[in-house]
Amino acid sequence: MGVTKEVTQRMDSQTVCRRLLELADSKYQSFQSGLVPGADNLLGVRVPELRKLAKEIAKGDWEAFLAENDREWYENDMLQGLVIACAKMDFGRRMDLIRDFIPRINNWAVCDVFCGSLKETKKHRDEVWEFLQPYLKSREEYEIRFGVVMLLSHFVEEAYLDRAFAVFDAITCDAYYVRMAVAWAVSVYFVHFPDESMAYLLHNQLDDWTYNKAIQKITESDRVEKEMKDVLRGMKRKR
């Protein structure tokens, strides 16, 4: 009896471009354009569709795809990150590809979707923590945001609380998407560790804008009790 092998076709750049154009939604493109400043090459493909396409690419010659994938569309960057996150490979290889991809991140959406997709982090937290340190100390807006969003996505654990708070205090970059990421991260930590996070809010080195934005985000959460929200609103700094 002959052995039947599953044959996977490599998805070349022309095929990927055609698929992206087929998936484009003009209404979503208009909506998304207002949310992602500077991304003037949006097709309007929703993230769930991009994830499906990335999984298809990952079943074939994904390394060839990564090597030839250009930046014609915003969605090409999304796909690059998603394929790196979902393709089967050893941890060291994935870390090399992550390092190569980070300079390609130039907006909050690609950054955040990429970070959230790196699920293997949970199996290698200590190694990834060390990997993130140069980015958290960088002066580049999206390198820092990458580091902070990785923390709130994969390091909301008791073992990392003090280290994460120290990282937030040490960030002095005043770029908008950095400060928003730090505020978001503090709010996520608060929801999971309210006592420890309250102690941090009472003694921190955050600038006033980031501190107040963190409190705003915490009070917008449905997972924080009204009484606590009232306390937090009274803690806002006057600028």
Provide the residue-averaged pLDDT: 94
* Helix-strand sequence: HHHHHHHHHHHHHH
Could you state the oligomeric state of the chains shown?
single chain
| Mass-distribution shape | globular
Total number of distinct structural domains: 2
- The helix count comes to 14
Q: The biggest beta sheet, please?
A: none
> Beta-strand level of the residues, as a percent range?
under 5%
- The N- and C-terminal alpha carbons lie at a distance of 79 Å
- Based on DSSP secondary structure assignment, what is the total number of beta strands? 0
What would the keywords be for this entry?
14 helices, globular, 239 residues, disordered N terminus, 2 domains, mainly alpha, single chain
Characterize the structure shown.
This protein has 239 residues and is an all-alpha fold. The protein folds into two domains: 8-117, no CATH class; 134-239, no CATH class. The chain has 14 helices and no strands. It has helices at 13-23, 26-33, 47-59, 62-68, 74-86, 91-101, 108-117, 125-136, 141-154, 161-170, 176-192, 194-202, 208-219, 226-233. The protein is globular, with a radius of gyration of 20 Å. It starts with 12 loop residues before the first helix and ends in a 6-residue tail after the last helix. Residues 1-8 have low confidence and may be disordered.
Compact overview of the structure:
Helix content is 65%, strand content 0%. It has helices at residues 13-23, 26-33, 47-59, 62-68, 74-86, 91-101, 108-117, 125-136, 141-154, 161-170, 176-192, 194-202, 208-219, 226-233.
